Amino acid sequence: MELAATLKSFIEEGQDWERKHTSVKGVSIIRLPATKNRAPSLAIDINPIGDNGLPMKKKGIMIMNSAEIAAFRAVFNNEKVDGLIAALEDVLPERKSQGKPAKPDVLQI
User: Fold this and answer.
1) pLDDT value of residue 99
2) Are the C-beta atoms of 7 and 18 separated by less than 8 Å?
3) 27 touches 17 (CB < 8 A)
4) 3-class SS at 19?
């Protein structure tokens, strides 16, 4: 099935807050419920996978349009953010992750 057709089917038939994993590790699609002012919609959820096969964060970053992803890219590519991260790593103790990996249903993109 073509990607656009799969997404259209997901928005029409999926459950509210249902997540569909993609073939890109750490990227999934979430079906957002309808509100008073808008119909159900979809968002990309970005939450990279760690060495243990689990998402790195409890919640990822939701992206709903190209303007949002461009804004995040600009922030992530800012050299000052790299300096801030380096300073945080110097100050904070190392964190250890736990858990076991899950086998998700994958949407090929």
Assistant:
1) 58
2) no
3) no
4) strand
In this structure, the dihedral spanned by the alpha carbons of residues 78, 81, 86 and 91, taken in order and rounded to 10 degrees, is 170
CA dihedral of residues 90, 92, 98, 103 (deg, nearest 10): -60
Whole-prediction pTM value?
Answer: 0.76
What the block records as the tokens of 70 is 């461009």
- Please say whether the beta carbons of 55 and 101 come within 8 A: no
Residue in this structure with the two tokens 């249902």, named with its chain if needed: 18
Predicted pLDDT at 64: 96
Domain boundaries, the chain: 3-93
Q: Which residues of the chain have pLDDT under 50?
A: none
Q: Which residues contact 15 (CB under 8 A, 6 or more apart)?
A: 31
Residue 30's DSSP bridge partners are 19, 43
Tokens matching residue 52: 């243990």
- Give the residue from 48, 25, 7, 14 showing the smallest Cα distance to 106: 25
